[in-house]
Amino acid sequence: MSTEPLRCAGALIVDPDGRIFFQRRSPHRRLFPNSWDIVGGHLEPGETVEQALRREVTEETGWQVSEIIGPVGEYRYVGDDGLARVESDWLIRVDGDLTAPVLEVGKHTEYRWLGPADLDLLDEDRDVNDGLIRRIAEEAFEILGPTGS
Prior knowledge:
Blueprint: E1 6-13, E2 20-25, E3 36-37, E4 39-42, H1 49-61, E5 64-78, E6 84-95, E7 108-114, H2 126-129, H3 132-144
Parallel strand pairs: 1-6
Antiparallel strand pairs: 1-4, 2-3, 2-7, 5-6
């Protein structure tokens, strides 16, 4: 078994109002059950981070990536499955009806568009992910600045 950490890509999808898209993971998920999350997942063999971002956004929302704005950061963590992960997170914009994402059945139960003042919602089930998603969101909003662009 490889000792290398699993590689992941995360998309912080930004709307025209400077809000970011979050979705709640199903309570039946093995990792981070019932917690709020960004769009993303593991890189498939041979896949680049950009390819993974594009694939995951379409799989999890039905939208298409229109612009990769820039990096938010790289985060290392160990899931409750004991596997180490390195996640590369990016601010992006998408094409599609932002009022009607197509959430993956069985994987996500609801979604929200949040602004910087709404991040307390991400503290729900914080013990599951130790506040990682909120920290990522705060860093993303800091990069976006007050205009959300």
